[in-house]
Amino acid sequence: MYTVYAIKSKIDSRIYVGFTVDVERRLKEHNSGKTKSTKGYCPWELIYTEKIEKRIDARKREKYLKSGVGKEFLKNKNGPVA
After folding, report:
1. Is a pLDDT exceeding 60 seen at residue 80?
2. At 3, which helix (H) or strand (E)?
């Protein structure tokens, strides 16, 4: 099982989307500066998660959420983490 996730920088509200098998570990990596693409924008908060069974499907969903339409979906998403 894979988790597609979105995190939001508390510094400038940018959104990063990825997928992983362990979202808690991955969020810790982002917040500890171990991820090159996100280390300059710490701290991060988890704003969205979605469980997907197959890796290929998780990758497709990640790509969609990284698109303009997908980012708008995440920006307009209200309420708790899914």
Report:
1. no
2. strand 2-9
